Amino acid sequence: IRSIQKRSVDDAKMVEVLSVKLHCTVASRFAHTVMTSTALNKANSSQEIFFEVDLPKTAFITNFSMEIEGQIYVGVVNEKEQAKKQYEKAVSSGRTAGLVKASGRKMEKFSVSVNIAAKSNVTFILTYEELLQRKFGKYEILTRINPKQLVQNFQIVADIYEPQGIAFVDAHATFLTNELLPLVEKTVTDNKAHISFSPTLDQQRKCPECDGSLINGDFIIKYDVKRASSLGDIQIVNGYFVHFFAPPDLPRIRKNVVFVIDRSGSMAGPKMIQTRVAMESILSDVHPDDYFGIILFDRSIEPWKQSLTKATEENVDEAIKFVRQIYPRGTTNINDSVMKAIHMLQDDRRNKKLPERSVDMIILLTDGMPNEGESNLQRIQQNVCEAIGGNMTLFCLGFGDDVDYSFLDVMAKQNNGVARRIYEASDATLQLQGFYDEVASPLLSAVDLRYPDNAVDSLTPHHFSQLFNGSEIVVAGRLSENDMDNFLVEVFANGFEQDFQVQGEASVTDWDVIYPEKDYIFGDFTERLWAYLTIQQLLETSKSGPAEEKSNATAKALEMSLKYSFVTPLTSMVVTKPETEEGPSGPLIADKLTEEQRQQADKQGGIGATYLHSAPQSGYMTTAAAPHPTYFVDGD
Amino acid sequence: PHFMIELPEREDALCFNINESPGTIFNLVKDPSIGLLVNGQTIGDKMVAPDGKVNTYFGRLGVVHHSLGVRLEVTTEYINLFQDGQKVKLLWSDQASLKGPSVDLLLTKDRSVKVTLRDSVKFVILLHKVWKMHPYHQDYLGFYTLDSHLLSPSVHGLLGQFYHGIEFEVGDLRPGEVPEKPDATMYVKGHQLNVTRGWQRDFRKDLKRGKNVPCWFIHSNGTGLIDGSAEDYIVSGLF
Predict the structure, then answer these.
(1) Which residues on A lie below 8 Å from B143 (Cβ)?
(2) Residue of B nearest to A271 (CA)
(3) Which residue of A has its CA nearest to B144?
(4) DSSP states of A306-328 as a string?
(5) Best residue in A300, A332, A631, A636 to probe B by mutation, most B CBs within 10 Å?
(6) What is the Cα–Cα distance from A57 to A131, expressed in whole angstroms?
(7) Where on the phi/psi map is residue B215: left (φ > 0), alpha (ψ -120 to 50), or beta?
(8) Phi and psi at residue A494, in whole multiples of 5°?
């Protein structure tokens, strides 16, 4: 919550923040957060008051409203194109509009301002929802707080309801001092947890006489649920079901990983150093049962060895010496380097050099666009996808802002993997290591979750190439019949030494019985969870799916975003601002940025405002300028 | 100042530093056949930084083209262009475009001046503005050759001697003093040099941060790579 502030310091004293409240309710990993902030304009004239909130990138805004002098102005989710027209109309008539801006790695910023009459109150209410993702064995609820001034009534409350049972809950904040620490109250029973933090005005002060607030940073709640069943947990509520699958105590399966590392000239400097350091650490962490290979590329392709090598201590030491000697040079040939990795894995499989029960993966790290060999991005994607043929997983790491993230994102998703942006910063080494840690320990491969065909429809994806240690697979669907007596669920997968196969019957979760004192959590959350997952899947298909499915997926995702009032990359939330003494105000627009738009915004200086007017990217630069020598003298 | 010779066809670059006491004037380009001279005078930091490192930069550049009758002086404050007895003075805070019979000049406010000398050379000079209150550093200049193919085979100078290419080989890559900067042996101009892989910055596209260009760094003021020694390029005046 960056909450309410005023443009000038003097005027800011004339705005009093009466309350900032954040209430997060989590029901079976689905988090519904309501942020409410009230301010009073103490001045004798009207003032523009700002409300700024950082919310998680994975969240969708579902509602925003403002209450001014008893009048409530409610946001309406519109199709983006329609909202854009409203926005442009407002701008062309000289009126201002609010925007969501790009911000940081995990968070994005929502920012609005409104003109408030003298001696009047304004209350802003923002609601957003997200499905918490399990990483490294934990779910995380992240709230960024920076109220800019002391707040009379400051409160963070989280209620977690997990019918599976709660294994642990941790709550901490980056700004907690020894004095503030006891104010974090935590009550945990078997299947629910309540966390609250509510410092008084004096407790918020940096020092007894000053107005500065200590409350500035991240408030983080981490928790996990108990896991007893190999089948996972299936919950059926109000005609929708959700299946959380992360069986306990599974041994890891062996992996065969080829690291494809860009050493082109643009990697020179800190990026290359950080890559070397990260690779040293990653190689040290490769499990001794795993096989690995390294391919360096610029215009030429240089494999460390022609086939994969078992990660024995000696081999790892030798590989570390090899990566210490990477130095940047030349241009970028992504196509041939990834193809080399694919062929290496295929050849070793064919020659039975790799364990039969093991998973194959390629981790590509690049910082630039292909400008050597095949440089047409779609053809590279096509080549890679055809060569992989669904038999291995491709992870892509885009280092810095010069790489086309959407190219990597699509290529990874077409091959069962994910792409990740690595931000150019002092912690890039940790970002690289962190990504490897996430995918380092596959527990199952070719995971297939099956449900009775006649009982469910509209299933979210239910086939996954891997389940990684510390993560969780979530599948949701709609029930097509009310008779749940024979709702048989089966899971098939490849495990460490044998096939993994479980089956069981799901039963209806009666929340009234589990939580008798709580007759209302937050509406039909299972349906919303299903809608959230379905929209995400459709958005992915609209980017990386087969051509004929793309437009259908986009249309369906838009329809569902509108139906469930989610601000997704296809929709915008429009709030009509009240009229002021100077005349009518323009609408406020809340948008959802895609990772590509965020990257674009970062390049343009961190503000995403310009993307609304930017032309869509329809093509790619595929040719590089003819090289010519350069001679210069300058200073560092 | 750091010198860089980028050779895209070899996908490689060479670089070296030259550090002499502030005030020294170096010849960067000399083409006697057309009467072209580019000289640069170094400046130092305002005072010695706590780490004791003395850095020098170019603070003043002089360009003379006798055949065209052009004389250009660029400092961190102003740009003086003399042509056929006429003088034009511009400040870095100006935005200007001059087109003459012998010279074109495009000044981008507080950033760069691009100069085209008819039928000879095209170059750009960058202004690096340093915060005025900085305790040690001050504004300085960078000189980038954009096109030199019309110069004669006799062109020389610290930069000019490389305008017609350079032959070199690098081998025997081995760990260096710093893990991220391996050493190697370079064979160039009949010498065998110990060089180090590093990088230096090209500020043309990003004046603030620059773009890292990986290069083979030649130690000791470029000794072995440049003809003679750095002292041989010291001249007495800017013009």
Answers:
(1) 632-634
(2) B212
(3) A632
(4) SS-EE--HHHHHHHHHHHHT---
(5) A631
(6) 11
(7) beta
(8) -95, 125
From the CB of residue A137, how many other CB atoms can be counted at a distance below 10 Å?
A: 14
Kindly report, residue by residue over A492-518, the tens digit of the pLDDT. 999 988 899 999 887 777 777 778 776
Q: Is the pLDDT of residue A183 over 90?
A: yes
Give me the pLDDT at residue A611, please.
24
Q: Give dist(CA A45, CA A43) in Å, integer.
A: 5
Rounded-to-integer distance, Cα A110 and Cα A144, Å: 12
Cα distances from A550 to residues A133, A538, A569, B91, in angstroms, run: 26, 9, 15, 56
- Please judge whether A631 and B7 are an interchain contact, meaning their C-beta atoms are less than 8 angstroms apart: no
Per CB-CB distance under 8 Å, the chain A contacts of B148 are 631
- The rounded distance, in Å, linking the Cα atoms of A1 and A217 is 10
φ, ψ dihedrals at A310, nearest 5°: -70, 140
- Please state, as a whole number, how many other Cβ atoms lie within 10 Å of the Cβ of residue B142: 25
pLDDT score of A522: 61
The span from the CA of A426 to the CA of A436, in Å, is: 18
The letter for the amino acid at A56 is P
Distance CA A480, CA A451 (A): 12
User: Quick one: pLDDT at residue A6?
Assistant: 43
pLDDT digits (tens, 9 = 90+) for A39-85: 998 888 888 888 888 899 999 999 988 898 888 888 888 888 777 77
Please give the average pLDDT of every successive group of 10 residues along chain B, which has 239 residues: 88 89 93 93 84 84 94 95 89 90 91 92 93 86 92 92 90 81 90 91 86 90 93 92
Sequence-distant (6+) residues with CB within 8 A of B51 are none
Q: Pairing state of beta strands A254-262 and A233-237?
A: unpaired
Judging contacts by C-beta atoms under 8 Å, the chain A residues touching residue B212 are 266, 268-270
Amino acid identity for residue A162 in this structure: E
Q: What is the least distance, in Å, from the CA of A148 to any CA of chain B?
A: 29
Q: How far is Cα A539 from Cα A558, in angstroms, rounded to an integer?
A: 9
Residue B4 sits at φ, ψ, to 5 deg, of: -140, 130
What confidence tier does A608 reach under pLDDT thresholds 50, 70, 90? very low
Amino acid at A141: I
User: Taking residues A399-426, what's their average pLDDT?
Assistant: 90
**pLDDT over 70 (residue A586):** no
- Amino acid (1-letter code) at residue A239: G
For helices A377-388 and A405-414, angle between their N-to-C axes, nearest 10 degrees: 20
Q: Are B39 and B238 in contact (CB under 8 A)?
A: yes
Alpha-carbon distance A590 to A83, whole Å? Answer: 9
Contact flag B144-A327 (C-beta cutoff 8 Å):
no
Instruction: Please tell me the predicted confidence (pLDDT) of residue A402.
Output: 82
